[in-house]
């Protein structure tokens, strides 16, 4: 079982590397985002599971049962009864490595989430002091800043924020496109999509595939929001708004927020102006099905009895 989980982890890493180089995800960003999430979760569980499966092999019964049996044997050892099975140094090292990797992934994810929540809370307090409502754009907070800025703060009390510079830079149709883009971020909770990849980037900053994965998912999130905005405006209007943002010296979105302009602006503009063929429906359904199967594969291998 350890070999199967190790092969699955390797396949996920190779799949992520190949996916960072592919361009077909631009044709179906939502399905590609789901695939990225499945790859990330499966890689983490499979990597941890491979180490634990090897370490707990003397107990039999798979990873979950092996952990329970090891815990029981450790309690027995503490009470003077000895371990249930002999333990050599390589298996002890694999057990320590597996539990450490699991702890690191969980802790980093929790810390990333907590830091993001704190940053949003501080920024909401700041907005309550400096931002104001505009009757011309209801439901949007306006900040009196001369540079262009447009971003959203997702959460239970989500807010869309634009600057005075944005209002003077864009016409009505372009502003509608920008607001629809930010509304898509809020409605589809793209912040939660990015959070695991941000945490993984913090945990493994030296791995180029992790950095590339974060960049790829961030771009797909923006493209998914662009697709939503195209329902309310012309793609060329949205592309023009992006170009205006790109040349006007925009203010970066604060930590914990999702902004209108960022990296890969020209890739998004070219996609809007010269859209490629949409991925066929059967291919998108196939991707969703494959992602779901991949997502449950590692948990099933954890509970597999042998």
From TrEMBL:
Q: Which residues form the Peptidase M48 domain?
A: 118-196
Q: Which InterPro entries match?
A: Beta-lactam_resp_regulator, Peptidase_M48
Q: Where are the transmembrane segments?
A: 34-56, 95-114, 285-304
User: How does the cofactor bind to this protein, according to its record?
Assistant: Binds 1 zinc ion per subunit.
UniProt keyword list: Hydrolase, Membrane, Metal-binding, Metalloprotease, Protease, Transmembrane, Transmembrane helix, Zinc
Where does the record locate the signal sequence feature?
none
Which Pfam families does this entry report, sorted A to Z? Peptidase_M48 (PF01435)
Matches recorded under CDD domains: M56_BlaR1_MecR1_like (cd07326)
Name what cofactor the protein needs: Zn(2+)
Similarity remark: Belongs to the peptidase M48 family.
Q: What is this protein called?
A: M56 family metallopeptidase
Q: Which organism is it from?
A: Sphaerisporangium corydalis
Classification lineage = Bacteria, Bacillati, Actinomycetota, Actinomycetes, Streptosporangiales
């Amino acid at each position: 079982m350890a070999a199967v989980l190790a092969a699955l982890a390797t396949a996920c890493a190779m799949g992520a590397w190949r996916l960072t180089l592919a361009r077909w995800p631009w044709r179906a960003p939502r399905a590609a985002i789901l695939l990225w999430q499945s790859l990330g979760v499966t890689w983490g569980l499979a990597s941890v599971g491979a180490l634990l499966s090897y370490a707990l092999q003397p107990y039999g019964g798979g990873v979950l049962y092996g952990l329970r049996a090891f815990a029981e044997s450790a309690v027995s050892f503490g009470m003077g009864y000895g371990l249930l099975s002999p333990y050599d140094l390589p298996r002890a090292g694999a057990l320590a490595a597996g539990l450490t990797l699991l702890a690191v992934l969980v802790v980093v994810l929790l810390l990333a989430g907590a830091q993001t929540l704190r940053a949003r809370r501080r920024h909401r307090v700041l907005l309550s002091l400096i931002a104001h409502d505009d009757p011309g754009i209801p439901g949007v907070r306006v900040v009196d800043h001369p540079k262009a800025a447009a971003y959203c703060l997702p959460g239970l009390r989500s807010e869309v924020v634009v600057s005075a510079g944005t209002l003077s830079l864009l016409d009505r149709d372009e502003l509608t496109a920008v607001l629809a883009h930010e509304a898509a971020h809020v409605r589809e909770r793209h912040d939660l999509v990015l959070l695991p990849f941000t945490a993984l980037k913090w945990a493994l900053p030296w791995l180029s595939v992790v950095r590339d994965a974060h960049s790829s998912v961030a771009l797909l999130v923006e493209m998914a929001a662009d697709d939503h905005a195209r329902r309310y405006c012309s793609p060329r209007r949205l592309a023009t708004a992006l170009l205006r943002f790109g040349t006007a010296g925009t203010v970066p979105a604060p930590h914990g927020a999702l902004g209108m302009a960022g990296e890969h602006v020209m890739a998004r503009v070219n996609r809007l102006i010269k859209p490629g063929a949409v991925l066929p429906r059967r291919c998108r359904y196939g991707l969703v099905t494959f992602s779901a199967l991949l997502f449950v594969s590692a948990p099933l291998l954890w509970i597999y009895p042998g």
